[in-house]
Write a sequence for this structure.
């Protein structure tokens, strides 16, 4: 018992020391500006890259023409490809990546566990089950997949939270999430037996993480969810900084730990539901991205949460661009590319920490 308490105290102290790194406005602006600039460059590159190539100098005049209603220098085919296919897909990749990265950063700070992410906690499993239910039984209803995925994530969140709720002991919550994730995976396998060949193919691609089948409803849903989630989670970043030291210490410093725990867990879970229902099961974004941000910019959640959102959007955008261009005109699942990128990075981080 003494050894365990000593280990816990030392780990909490190291977390506290990392949080205490002073965050200046200049450093925050530099990190955010670099990430936003990288995201903008990658978005332009994704617009001009593909089976039908468009010159970079034609993009901005075409956008201005689209906004003003004047004639564009693009051909009809290029106009459709840029504004009806690539631009919505880029926006979907940005929204899904931002949602998953924010959720991952929030879960890791709340649970004080670097391995915590929406997939480990069973939230994505609930969203996946809800979305598959919509594909099989309600595919003709507009907004059915986002709404069912959102409801599935919310229900899984409530169950996991009730099963794993313990004061100042997040390990029970992680364990409950792992059990729930395993159970939901089994239910999903059984659900696929009810699908015909066409729906089974759609479900398989969606489970691998596929942004090509994203609909306008899903895009609107995930963008609204990211905006609302950021507005809720960023103000909680100071409380999360204190809770990383320990919930009892944070409570002694005036943090309403029960309220913060519930608000952060629910918001991050619903962000996951929106992302999974819109873009499928894209893994490693919520796990790896916050680690890279903390490695580069420190552990202050006032910077980690917004920077993770931009970095997650950048990661999914790069992965989706590779997925649709590597074997063009054939496409690869975006989730497979994020796994190929995220797994080696995470292994490197583990080896470096040793």
């Amino acid at each position: 018992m003494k050894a365990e308490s000593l280990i816990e105290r030392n780990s909490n102290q190291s977390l506290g020391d990392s949080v205490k790194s002073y965050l200046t406005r200049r450093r925050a602006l530099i990190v955010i500006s670099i990430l936003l600039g990288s995201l903008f460059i990658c978005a332009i590159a994704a617009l001009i890259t593909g089976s039908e190539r468009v010159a970079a100098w034609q993009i901005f005049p075409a956008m201005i023409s689209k906004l003003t209603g004047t004639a564009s220098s693009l051909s009809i085919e290029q106009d459709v490809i840029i504004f009806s296919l690539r631009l919505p897909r880029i926006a979907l990749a940005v929204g899904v990546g931002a949602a998953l990265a924010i959720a991952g950063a929030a879960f890791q700070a709340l649970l004080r566990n670097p391995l915590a992410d929406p997939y480990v906690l069973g939230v994505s499993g609930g969203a996946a089950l809800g979305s598959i239910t919509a594909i099989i039984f309600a595919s003709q209803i507009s907004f059915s997949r986002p709404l069912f995925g959102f409801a599935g994530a919310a229900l899984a969140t409530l169950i996991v939270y009730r099963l794993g709720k313990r004061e100042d002991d997040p390990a029970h919550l992680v364990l409950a999430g792992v059990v729930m994730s395993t159970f939901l995976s089994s239910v999903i396998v059984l659900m696929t037996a009810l699908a015909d060949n066409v729906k089974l193919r759609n479900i398989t691609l969606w489970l691998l993480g596929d942004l090509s089948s994203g609909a306008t409803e899903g895009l609107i849903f995930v963008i609204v969810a990211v905006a609302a989630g950021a507005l809720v989670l960023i103000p909680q970043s100071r409380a999360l900084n204190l809770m990383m030291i320990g919930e009892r210490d944070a409570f002694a410093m005036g943090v309403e730990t029960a309220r913060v725990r519930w608000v952060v867990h629910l918001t991050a879970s619903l962000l996951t539901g929106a992302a999974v229902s819109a873009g499928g099961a894209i893994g490693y974004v919520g796990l790896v991205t916050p680690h890279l941000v903390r490695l580069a910019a420190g552990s202050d959640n006032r910077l980690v949460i917004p920077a993770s959102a931009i970095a997650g959007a950048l990661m999914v955008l790069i992965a989706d661009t590779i997925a649709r261009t590597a074997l063009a005109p054939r496409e690869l699942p975006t989730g497979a590319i994020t796994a190929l990128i995220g797994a080696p990075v995470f292994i490197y981080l583990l080896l470096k920490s040793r």
Summary: Residues 1-20 have pLDDT under 50 and may be disordered. Residues 76-111 form the longest helix (36 residues). DSSP finds 15 helices and no strands in the chain. The chain has one domain: 35-40+87-353.
